[in-house]
Design brief:
The complex is a heterodimer. Chain A has two domains: 327 residues, Cytochrome Bc1 Complex, Chain C, CATH 1.20.810.10; 90 residues, Cytochrome c-like domain (Cytochrome Bc1 Complex, Chain D, domain 2), CATH 1.10.760. Chain A has 20 helices and two strands. By secondary structure, chain B is mostly helical. Chain B has two domains: 84 residues, Orthogonal Bundle (Cytochrome Bc1 Complex, Chain D, domain 2); 114 residues, Cytochrome c-like domain (Cytochrome Bc1 Complex, Chain D, domain 2), CATH 1.10.760. Chain B is 47% helix and 0% strand. Chain B has eleven helices and no strands. The radius of gyration of chain B is 27 Å and the shape is elongated. The C terminus of chain B is likely disordered. Classes of the chains: A mainly alpha, B mainly alpha.
Chain lengths: 496, 258
Amino acid sequence: MSGLKQKGIAIYRWLDSRLGLAGPVIEAAEHPIPKSSASWWYVFGSAATVILMMQIVTGVLLALVYTPTARDAWNSLNFLNHGLTLGWFLRALHGWGSDFMVAIVLIHMTQVFMFGAYKFPRELTWILGVFLLLMTFGMAFTGQVLRFDQDAYWGIGIGASIMARVPFVGSKLVHLLLGGPIIGATTVSRFFALHVFVIPGILLAFVGLHVWMVLRLGINEWPMPGRLVRRSTYIQEYEAEIHKDGVPFVPDAGWTDAMFAAAIILAIMACAALFGPIGPTGPPDPTIIQTVPKPDVPFLWIYALLALLPPKLETPILLIVPVVVICVMLALPFFAGEGEKHWSRRPIAVLMVLVIAVSLGTLTVVSLNPPWSPEMTAWSADPVQPRFLRGRTPLERQGAIVFQEKQCRNCHALAGLGGKRGPDLASVATRLTEDELVRQVLQGGGNMPAYGSALSPAQTTALVAFLGTLNGNERPARDPSLELTHSNAAQKQQKF
Amino acid sequence: MKTPAKILAAVLLSASVGCNHLPGKPGLRPETQRPDQTHDFATLYKTNCSACHGDNGKNGPALPLNNPVYLAWAGHDAIQGIVSNGVPHRLMPAFGPGAGGLLTAEQVEDIVNGMMKNWGKKDVLNGQNVPAYNPGSAGDPTQGQAVFQRNCASCHGADGKGVAGGPPHVTGSIVDPSYLALISSRGLRDIIVAGIPEQKMPDWRGDASGKPMTDREVTDVVAWLVSQRTPHPGTMVTPADKRKNQAAIAPVQSRGGR
């Protein structure tokens, strides 16, 4: 045994005398950090790096099977899911890893912002961080495209349509990205190159620089209210603090990083095992119209935003806001490079983070169950519940069929079942009189199309008779004028 | 092997076996197929037909398909024709590829076969004297009225406008011009011969007269119902109603039918 050990040490010595890496690595590991920073708040950056490593490993394994062509990409993922032992788990790890990566990077960025760590002398670290964030989104987006299912198709479509709005060069950009004017045979290989070579290459280089600077400039100290950053004195103060009660990164702070990274990896594995791989949804075929494609979680908020923005504002907002936001983030350390670091003295910063987090969160939640998109199959797939038919006249039952056949159900649920674009009509008769129902159906209004020319008078009569029965167990709304002119049901029948 | 190594090996082994039963493992789900490659009857029926014909072919607003008498009487070919081409100018849409439907010919076949297999009973009609599927003549409305009095009036009222009294009495009118405009003569014949079992509308055998209806009687009663169609069903009848109708439609037209 001891002979083996001796041999091991000899090999290590041989290598290190040539490489000379052990010294710097050990030095980096043991570099002193402020005692206050050996905290659970400082673990997100290293966790993101660890997830990145995991993504590289799983990504390489996926690339062994994945076929980056428009014809076979979708099939090769289905082969991974169903044809290879644990192939699905590999996909699930990579997919969930991506979602976790985006989340952790965002949290890391928020933490850095709230702790004022972007201030002097760490401006460049922050700026690289902004690029790393953008590249993380880039990886998430290109990865979603490589799945090449219906959602991916949607994603590229939207991405291309945003790009196409750029003045002058829009169509050229689209051409460059898609390898043609439309999504075609070369699109997947372009995105494959981006996802596997271009972005990861830059990403790794930037991560290296980013970490290098963290080591070189030292980890941000725990902010204290009233302790201001000044360019002239900060470095001496920091050195003094480290000198006074600095601790070595390993083991004093390193163990929190290691624990957290391990917990995150376990969480990714758990999600992968429990929820499985993300997609592929249906095959990418624009002729399949019975779907409502949706982007992956990190981009859901854009989906919601696009759906909710009035069409006139779309182009300016899509083109101007991202540029402004990125510029502000890049410029941040220059106009706020000095002064308070503590959040309690930076109300505007706190407010900004809250507003952004709440709006992104709301948009994401809204888009999980998008109320604005009609449910394309409701007209033929959602039964009219028997309780809305019991004891109804033949005419009213025909009205229920008209309701389905004219696809009203795609926008209007009955007692929760059906599309959610318009109001649920289960108790519409308590809100509207017959005249108002006729008007709404014939003229439309709000976001509802006018059906005046699409319905025969007989269909309108039946439809309104049916809607008039939807009183949710309450009594129908009464039109007082009707009460005066018509007194019995037989006359009412003839009204239309 | 030392004990820890043994434990480790055991854990790894059971983990690798257990992995094939993890909840995240994707099954062969329908959404991973093209919609036109679904051939499962339950899925096809649910997504394409259940809205109008009801869950499991019953209790929907349109005619029940889960009706052995109907299935045996109409037969595979007639039903396949209806599903492929719809009922023209009526509310039954076409599903076949030739008529602009979203299903393939094989899928239509799957649905028809599925209905026959799951809901049909081959020999319900054996030894019975069933009226023909297609009417042999136009029918005589006057005769039909008499048939209606004998066979139908007890539940539908003497004029077909319904009677009070709860099931099986029917409250609503089956001679309302709008109703008659929306249902085809084919559909009326189907109801009268095959009935609506879950609603206690009897088939051709169980009518009030006590003896099964003949082919002739069915044809005549349909003719009587159809004779009550009007040229402009569902349009307003009184001058006041007409004005109201104009008021409701005029803004639509002036806005170019937005």
